[in-house]
Automatic annotation (TrEMBL):
Domain ABC transporter: 2-250
Molecular function, one GO term: ATP binding
CDD domains named among the record's database cross-references: ABC_Mj1267_LivG_branched
PROSITE patterns recorded: ABC_TRANSPORTER_1, ABC_TRANSPORTER_2
InterPro entries listed in its UniProt record: AAA+_ATPase, ABC_AA/LPS_Transport, ABC_transporter-like_ATP-bd, ABC_transporter-like_CS, BCA_ABC_TP_C, P-loop_NTPase
Gene Ontology cellular component annotations, sorted alphabetically: plasma membrane
Name of the featured protein: ABC transporter ATP-binding protein
Length: 260
């Protein structure tokens, strides 16, 4: 579904992404891991259109999308979330969901003045969709709560819900587990698995919690120093000597023997 070829993103002398190539298969939940500074979020930002790469190519279903802005990629079904949730804090959870679909009739002055019936009908449809998302995520108890009052984990669930308000093909999740307690993290994980299995969502996620990665992701791609270091199952990459060295600075083979 997504193919990244020899991608570079340089900031002056800093090579944040340095020749990375990878593929994300349709219907997969792909994990993207690596030490801090590996280039993971920068790669997300390039794929999602927030940065135009220095060089290289990105393809979605065979169509080159390199450098397209986020709103065009949104229309093609490519969405991303952020490590820090970007909610509308003074709107309710339901209202946050209802703002997502593009091209709503009420956004046009002519329709708002002269086609009020059509605007109202569409708003009912969007509200119905929002309520379906709320039921799916089991967050009905906060549906009318201001989003700014939610906990960090609830805001992550809301961001996931916003991707459900449109026909998403692939969703990039940036540290969905950051700052989330274990109970809510399990709830988020359950929702991701259900979206993948029941609705065919494709996911790629940056995450540092290897238990969470191991539960959800296959394959797992490891980045280090701006490029792809390894790929495999969670167990395979955890046992990979190069991965251990990238994270810990020394491989198991190089560790001194412990003397009794």
């Amino acid at each position: 579904m997504i193919r990244v070829e020899n991608l570079h993103m340089h900031f002056g002398g800093i090579r944040a992404v340095n020749g990375a190539s990878l593929e994300i298969a349709k219907g997969s939940i792909t994990g993207l891991i690596g030490p801090n500074g590996a280039g993971k979020t920068t790669l997300f930002n390039v794929v999602a259109g927030h940065y135009r790469p220095t060089s290289g190519h990105v393809y979605l279903d065979g169509e080159e999308i390199t450098g397209l802005p986020p709103h065009e990629l949104f229309g093609k079904g490519l969405l991303r979330t952020f490590q820090i949730a970007h909610e509308f804090s003074t709107l309710t959870v339901r209202e946050n969901l209802m703002t997502v679909p593009a091209g709503q009739a009420g956004e046009r002055i002519w329709d708002a003045w002269f086609r009020r019936g059509a605007v109202a009908a569409q708003e009912r449809d969007v509200r119905r969709k929002a309520d379906e998302v709320i039921d799916f995520l089991e967050i009905g108890h906060v549906a009318d709560e201001l989003a700014g009052n939610l906990s960090g984990g609830q805001k992550k669930l809301l961001e996931l819900g916003r991707t459900m308000m449109v026909d998403a093909k692939i969703v990039f999740l940036d540290e969905v587990g950051a700052g989330v307690n274990r109970t809510l993290l399990n709830t988020i994980g359950d929702a991701i698995l259900r979206l993948n299995r029941e609705r065919g969502y494709t996911f790629c996620m940056i995450e540092h919690d290897m238990d969470f990665i191991g539960r959800l992701c296959d394959p797992v791609i490891v980045m280090a120093e701006g490029t792809v270091l390894a790929e495999g199952t969670a167990e395979e990459v955890k046992a990979n000597e190069q991965v251990i060295e990238a994270y810990l600075g020394t491989g198991l083979k190089n560790k001194p023997a412990v003397r009794a």
